[in-house]
Design a protein that fits this description.
221 residues, alpha+beta, SH3 type barrels, 2 domains, five-stranded antiparallel beta sheet, disordered C terminus, Ribosome maturation factor RimP, RimP_N, cytoplasm, RimP_C
Amino acid sequence: MTDGAETEHETASAGLEERIITETGVDARVAGIIEPVLGSIGFRLVRVRLSGLNGLTLQIMTERHDGTMTVEDCELVSRTLSPVLDVEDPIDRHYHLEVSSPGIDRPLVRKSDFVTWTGHIVKIDTSAVLDGRKKFRGRIAEVTGDAVTVESDQASYGDKPVVEVPFEMISEARLILTDDLIRDALRRDKDLREGRIPEDSAGSADEAEASAAEQEQTKQD
């Protein structure tokens, strides 16, 4: 945990950090449209996912740069993005727009996400075979500029207990919900509210409230 006031340069750097895990296809088109809009109102994109839920649902997962996301934030993002998506019209069918926080068992999409949640259990899928497999689960032990080291918490026979996974090979990564994760997420929330964590390094806050806050709006062509 870092003490002290953040500088303007650090805040800008945190806001501009690019995701290392991004979308493809229609999801990527939507991301390209909304990411700069989110940035202009003080949010950053976590993930876009178009699914067949309730006919067709466009889920936009986002958060403030400090990791917070309230019910009011979800409403603001939904109101801001709706007219933009109406104009750009990236989806040629009726769909529901759902804006939500990443939640406590969040996707990890930036290198800083892995740093923030070092010590917690993550599930990682890779785009190619690494050490004989493409799925890994374990505790985040170390993060470098190029890779994350994972110590397995459920080692199977023949699998290496410690694996270094290059960031360029990660196709998906998500935290596993544990009692330790819930406790640390709530503690970070409290520390942030009381000003003990600089906003750009607070990996998760207000998630317990916001994970249940999903704003849904029917979209038309």
